Design the sequence.
């Protein structure tokens, strides 16, 4: 099942529960896995490589384009939190905002996300440590505590998680469920570089407090 179709299916579930006003959050992987994964895809180029002519989209640009078409109706408040993680500068237990001048305001549209990605990415040094989603989920939880309503977190990831990080991600999900104000509709982890490779549905409901069940829902599709 293709990425757009899979995401659309999840959105249909949200729509059926009248959750069109979910707050969107994105997180993007800036680890060196974007280089190693590219050895067998994207013509050997870094998955974040940007074509100056704009004629060729990298996997992240392609994902943002497709997701923009599917999720635009959920962007009713014109505030989309976007963060990066795994780069050489940001501490392992933190993320950086695409809107550092006012992180809580976020991007106002998918066009702004695209432009900020285009401007920021060439300036970012990739980090050598493996991707860790625990801090990403905890950051999203902190944001959710400040903003009422339902939330949808989408993580664009270049590689599978190491076992120790998989456990930490599951624990972060369990921890998030303990906060009554954090009402989650979806967390989706999209695997780069091929849009058909989807690591989806870490959990569909953060109120699930069974860590083993949350971990068991972390599944991959090749």
Sequence:
């Amino acid at each position: 099942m293709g990425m757009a179709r899979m995401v659309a299916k999840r959105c249909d579930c949200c729509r059926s529960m009248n959750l069109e006003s979910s707050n969107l959050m994105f997180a993007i992987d800036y680890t060196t896995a974007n280089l190693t994964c590219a050895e067998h895809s994207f013509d050997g180029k870094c998955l974040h490589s940007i074509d100056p002519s704009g004629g060729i989209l990298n996997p992240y640009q392609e994902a943002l384009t497709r997701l923009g078409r599917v999720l635009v109706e959920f962007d009713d408040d014109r505030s989309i939190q976007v963060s990066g993680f795994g780069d050489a500068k940001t501490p392992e237990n933190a993320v950086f905002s695409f809107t550092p001048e006012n992180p809580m305001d976020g991007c106002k549209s998918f066009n702004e996300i695209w432009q900020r990605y285009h401007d920021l990415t060439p300036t970012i040094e990739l980090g050598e440590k493996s991707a860790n989603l625990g801090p990403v989920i905890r950051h999203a939880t902190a944001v959710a505590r400040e903003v009422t309503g339902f939330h949808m977190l989408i993580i664009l990831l270049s590689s599978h998680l190491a076992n120790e990080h998989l456990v930490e991600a599951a624990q972060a999900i369990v921890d998030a469920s303990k906060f009554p104000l954090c009402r989650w509709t979806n967390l989706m982890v999209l695997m780069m570089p091929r849009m058909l490779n989807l690591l989806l549905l870490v959990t569909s409901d953060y109120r699930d407090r069974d860590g083993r069940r949350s971990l068991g829902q972390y599944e991959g599709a090749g």
